[in-house]
Amino acid sequence: MTSTRNEKEDKAKEEPHVSIETFATSTSAHGFARAYQSRHLVAKAIWTALITAGFIVAVVQIYFRFAAYFRYDTTTKITMVFAKELQFPADFTHAFTSFGNCYTFNANGSKYQDQEGIGNGLHLEINIQQYLYSNSLLRGDDLDAGIFFHVHNQSEPPSIETKGRAAAPGFRTYAGLSRLDTDTLEPPYGPCNQSASLQYYEVYTTSGCIMECKLNHILEACGCKPMQYPGDARECSLVEETKCVLPVLANIRQNFTRMCKCPVPCQVVTYQTSVTSTAVPSLSTGGELKDIYNVDVTSYKKNFVILDVYLESLNYVHSEQQPAIEPGALIGDIGGQFGLFMGFSLLTIVEFIEFAILTVFAFVCYPKTKPKVDVAVEDAHEKEKNDNNKNRSVDYKVFFR
């Protein structure tokens, strides 16, 4: 008996130990020991059903979490920032646009506003000299008189055509500003491109990208550029603008999405502008203009534009796009589902992997070896068998006496 047991122990040491009973009763996963050790068949069936149901529910929940993660949904975090002072939006720099001369105030970003409200921002009184206008209906010119203004960040070129606001002569126009900072994610969560750059502008902006896109198509087709576009290329003549530039711009308008690929910038600073106005001069001040300054009231109303640009509040809103499900949150969800329905942890998964590897190794390297090689359990069964045989032998002898 001793020799046989030693041989079995030596053989067990050489062969991989893959006892299903030992694994089921020792694993940290909940329910396996109950299912294996229960003496009643009904109890075994109930525990097996519970383990199976828990596994199915956990897998289904994890599938839905993966599906939600790979939709790359986002959430928006809105923060109110309280600042002591704000940089005033874009002394004067000159540019030429399709609307004519354009002057940018505070282009270098050196001016800040530390008090909110009218009188603490930019105040302009502009003589538009309407008597020098040369508009003509025969040429299809605009009928209006006044100025357009665009409140924008210093890094963004003026976009009068798309974002301009109007101020008319004979009125005092108030432009109240509210700042909004927006941060957008790159793919797969958002449409922005952090590496996007421009040739003529230091900071990438959508308006700058559109400007350069139009310029490149004009240069390719006409070999020159209109004066309002950046760069050192030759300026187009009036004939070239009429015969070449205008058709190119019309084609771009019709096929803009295909011809101009301008991704959204990842960081954008915008100023929401609310415009109100009052008539000037009043009846009382109109008389004083005539008496003190010898200014004709009718001429004043036709030619003077008064503009006040100011920050309505020093506080501003910061909008930040964030992933709805971070990788860490996904891992936490997976662990939570397995932990709730199966009692699993990361180490439990390692236990199952180890058991699977040892089982495969046993069948591949020891094809004649039974998976169950627990020597102690086998010896106990053999001892119980011998005791039963001994008892039967005793009973047999007593019966025949």
UniProtKB/TrEMBL annotation:
Localization (cell): Membrane
Membrane topology designation: Multi-pass membrane protein
The name this protein goes by in its record: Acid-sensing ion channel 2-like
Coiled coil: none
GO molecular-function term, one example from the UniProt record: ligand-gated sodium channel activity
Protein's UniProt keywords contain Mitochondrion: no
InterPro entries, per database record: ENaC
Residues spanning the membrane: 41-64, 340-366
Gene3D superfamilies attached to this UniProt entry: Acid-sensing ion channel domain (1.10.287.820), YojJ-like (1.10.287.770)
Top-rank taxon: Eukaryota
GO cellular component: plasma membrane
Family: Belongs to the amiloride-sensitive sodium channel (TC 1.A.6) family.
Keyword entries, A-Z: Ion channel, Ion transport, Membrane, Sodium, Sodium channel, Sodium transport, Transmembrane, Transmembrane helix, Transport
Pfam families documented for this protein: ASC (PF00858)
